[in-house]
Design goal:
By secondary structure, the protein is mostly helical. The protein is 80% helix and 0% strand.
Length: 153
């Protein structure tokens, strides 16, 4: 058995163990009245992930591979990672934005402007991803200058 296969089996077993722990905690700590809400949240998360986030990440990588002469795999990975992180944070914050727009019983329950904060988060994420891409490309260009070309050898 290869090392990769052992890692795969170990991560699968860890995932199943964490899933079992989550199920036990859910049954012990959460009121059965809340199961429908949890189920709806998971269904919404699945729809948003499979219907919006995953296709956008896939589309971004296809566009980068087709439009540019040669986009390094690291740059594609940075963009994909930023899109996934942004999608997950949006998925987490969106219910707060919706609930705040519907209103709450107390103004202290959702006191922040979550839509503004989400927008700022996306701007910061885009800037950081851009800086990471620029840093990688600068290091890549520097490495290319230090490496002798094939025709010089």
């Amino acid at each position: 058995m290869t090392v990769v296969r052992r890692w795969q089996i170990g991560l699968l077993l860890l995932g199943l163990a964490l899933l079992a722990v989550g199920g036990v905690v859910l049954l012990q700590e959460v009121s059965p009245k809340r199961y429908l809400g949890i189920l709806l949240w998971f269904a919404g998360a699945l729809i948003i992930h499979d219907g919006i986030i995953a296709p956008l990440v896939f589309l971004a990588s296809v566009v980068m591979r087709k439009t540019a002469a040669r986009v390094p795999a690291v740059v594609i990975a940075i963009v994909q990672g930023a899109l996934v992180i942004g999608g997950i944070i949006t998925l987490i914050v969106l219910p707060e934005i919706v609930k705040k727009s519907l209103g709450t019983l107390s103004s202290s329950i959702l006191p922040q402007d979550y839509a503004l904060h989400l927008g700022v988060f996306w701007v910061v994420l885009i800037v950081l991803a851009g800086l990471a891409v620029a840093f990688y490309l600068a290091m890549f260009a520097r490495r290319q200058k230090l490496r002798p070309s094939a025709d010089q050898a």
